[in-house]
Amino acid sequence: MKYSVITISRQYGSGGREIGTQLAQRLGIPFYDKALCAEAARRSGFDESFLEQAERQEGRKFSYLFQSNSYSFCRSLGDQTFLALATTIRDLAEQGPCILVGRGANRILSDRTDALHVYLYADRQTRLKRIVAQYGVPAEQAEKVLHDTDRARAVYLKDYTDQIMGQAENYHLCLDSGALGIEHTVKILEAVYRTT
């Protein structure tokens, strides 16, 4: 199997953005995380910062979102943001090789045989250290921010894709970026991408 698209789902603080960025540089392909939101905002008219927070917004799942590209069928603002992001994810994957982080991309692209779906996780202490040192979260708030972010992402994923976050069968590869380290995780993903 030859992969052209990589989706990265991740626990908050597991280094998904850093891993995706480094991997994209090594592979010479586009990386979409915040850029995904910028593109969805350009296409839909939604505010970019609003779309960036989409995974932290709780909503309700409507199964027709996977069959329709029309915003007019959506019943809530949350549904409309999901549809804008889903449409953009599909379009970017159609344009060529890329790495897409979060926003249920693994489910949105589950019908693509050229998509490698990855889940990144790490132990709690590693994640807490990362969000304080690299994300700028105050140490006294880190535990709450970690819990709230993980919970909101899990709710978002369940509401809009009917998946349970971190459930192995939703991905081709699950990696402990805390135990492996960022560099080794990137090397593993590069090897899988290049050798398949």
Write the layout of secondary structure elements.
Blueprint: E1 5-10, H1 16-27, E2 31-32, H2 34-44, H3 48-52, H4 77-95, E3 98-101, H5 105-108, E4 115-121, H6 124-133, H7 139-161, E5 173-176, H8 177-180, H9 182-195
Question: How would you summarize this macromolecular structure in one to three sentences?
Answer:
With 196 residues, the chain is an alpha/beta fold.
Descriptive labels:
single chain, globular, 5 strands, five-stranded parallel beta sheet, alpha/beta
Structure notes:
With 196 residues, the protein is of the alpha/beta class. 52% of the residues lie in helices and 12% in strands. The protein contains nine helices and five strands. The chain has helices at 16-27, 34-44, 48-52, 77-95, 105-108, 124-133, 139-161, 177-180, 182-195; strands at residues 5-10, 31-32, 98-101, 115-121, 173-176. Strands 2-3-1-4-5 form a five-stranded parallel sheet, sandwiched between helices. Helix 1 crosses helix 9 and helix 2 packs across helix 4. The radius of gyration is 16 Å and the shape is globular. Residues 58-72 have low confidence and may be disordered.
Helices, by number, come to: 9
Tell me the structural class.
alpha/beta
The H-and-E topology, N to C, reads as EHEHHHEHEHHEHH
Termini separation comes to 5 Å
Cα shape: globular
Uncertain residue segments: 58-72
Mean pLDDT: 85
Biggest sheet overview: 5 strands, parallel
Say how many strands there are. 5
Helix content: 40-55%
Strand content: 5-15%
Over all CA atoms, what is the radius of gyration?
16 Å
The main sheet orders its strands as: 2-3-1-4-5
GO molecular function: kinase activity
Keywords: Kinase, Transferase
Protein name: Cytidylate kinase-like family protein
